[in-house]
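Our preliminary data section would be incomplete without showing what the modeling component actually yields. Below, a chain of 263 amino acids is followed by its predicted structure, encoded as tokens that our downstream tools consume directly.
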Amino acid sequence: MKPIYEENEETLEIAEQISCHIPPHLHKSMELVSVTEGTLEIGVGTELYHMEKGDFALVFPELIHHYQVFNSESCKAIYALASPLLAPGYTKELQQFCPVNPVILAQEVHPDVNYALRSMLVYPTASQGHVLHQAFIQIILARTLPLFEMIDKSSVGSNDIIYQTVSYIAAHYTEELTLSKMAHDLGISQSSLSRVFSGTFHTNFNRYLNEARLDYACSLLLHSDLTILDICIRAGFDSQRTFNRVFQERYHMSPREYRKQPH
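Predicted structure:
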């Protein structure tokens, strides 16, 4: 599930898919997760929470989170990324607070939550069910927020290097960016920063940066009428040739072909 970066629209993406390891990241959308098969570990900030079949989790916007799967059997979940603009009545809560524990156990999940998630799968993009999306998201929040113990969102942040790395990339991925510049801005050595990417994210700086840029580019391909060249530039790629190459490596198709695919 890709993060949605275009927050000037009331966007939503939802899909039921196989769960897998996803490294630490953050975005401006709220993320809703309902485990449908197996188990899932969800990390928010520096804490890790276990989820079983039927459990529901809500990750508030602008919180670093990641996913891990330890179960060798089939693990699936419904993942939804929803713009806060779909829930205007909950703006304050979503901006200022977050749950101490983002997971609601299956026996405590109201039937309306599962009904809303399953219904949104019928209308997976905003153009098909804009009004319905608003209604279902607000039903989910109305049924789940009262169950959470809330704390100030700023208390979830961390000054450790992993948090700083994810936050920095999220803020600067569309700019001209190098490992040396990032290390200088964070006040650490290039070798220390490289070890964060290899040891924690299991990738290197360039690949992690390109993943963030590709996620943004995919959102623009789906939610805008911008040309491929404009999307390439907005996403931070230095040339359309580079953009096309890394896009082909990840999706095994061109950006133009991706835009034409049903989503």
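Residues 97 and 153 are 5 Å apart (CA to CA). The longest strand covers residues 30-37. Preliminary results of this kind motivate Aim 1 of the renewal.
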